[in-house]
Amino acid sequence: MRLRNLARVAAVGAAIALAATGCSSGGDDDGDTTASGDKACGLTIAFVGAQTGGEAALGINISNGAQLAVDQYNEKNADCKVTLKKFDSEGKPEKASTVVPEVVQDEKIVGVVGPAFSGETKATGPTFEEAGLPIITASATNPALAENGWKIFHRILGNDAAQGPQAALYIKNDLKASKVYVVDDASEYGKGLSDIVKKDLGSVVVGSDTVQDGQTDFSAVVTKIKSSGATALFYGGYYDEAGLLRKQLTQAGGQAITLIAGDGVKDTKFVDGAGTAAAEGTIVTCPCLPPEKAPGTFFEDYKKAFNAEPSTYSAEAFDAATVFLDGIADGKSTRADMLEFVKAYDKQGITKQVKFDAKGEVADKGVWAYKFEGGKIVALKEIK
């Protein structure tokens, strides 16, 4: 998780100085920041996350949710539109570290939805902090992100300190598994979540192992899982590797071993890797509201806009973008003013009451259990 290009942050000073000028009096049609009533105009919100690569489906879910919020805002404010600018991190800390300096140097950007994943958030947080650019992640769940002292950091969902214990609770109370094997993908997110689950499961953990991003042959770990006598497998990581692991475990005769995974596997791309039959019955946990339960017309609006149903963190991203849009509507045209607006925000969103504590965390940390059935993801219940 090395930080790169931090030297380029020196150039941010000039960008911030430009942004701090706020709304000018009489902009033109070239996109300059101007004022329209009390609203700030000509401003941009950024999205940072995977748009290509192995985890692109998760990133696109999120960027689409933010895009819907921006599009609906622009429909109501045609004279004072906001731009959503997307920066592709490919879901990798190294890539994110090369694109984030471009984000902070764009003086029109006053807020960021993202970064999407925990590793890239850890790698780029110091850059955002140096630039004073507020971020609201809709999906990065590693608890340690809130412990860095970053004033710019906000998270619109519960972290893995909530998800991990609830996943363990589901394994013990609902699956009643007495022998559990735990595997992680060595990522900031996957290892962090798996470590919490292992701690909460305690003596029922009969073994653990680590795989790597991009790994395709899981024969060695499959052998260990089967020989352990485990009836359940918890996986901390993303859907690409999880799908292949599930497929190979089933092919090796481990079809009776139930797979439970975190939110990084909550995408139908998991089925592409595992196959519909092998994926059947897999449980995933997520600190996210089932999008069909979002109030109002969000679900249908998303389907109409993107010809697909909203999925993991689409609704949370909609809420994150809405916080920044509300700030722009309130005339916040500088990063400093937007940061203060976000810190004081207290409003009902479509997923929860959005209000951040001093560390940037929200109070509502609900965790849901979902199940793969017939190739689709079905909400089971909120784990309590």
From TrEMBL:
It comes from the Bacteria. The keyword Cytoplasm does not apply. The keyword Signal applies. Gene3D superfamilies: 3.40.50.2300. Residues 43-375 form the Leucine-binding protein domain. Keywords: Signal. Residues 1-19 form the signal peptide. Belongs to the leucine-binding protein family. This is Amino acid/amide ABC transporter substrate-binding protein, HAAT family. It comes from Cryptosporangium aurantiacum.
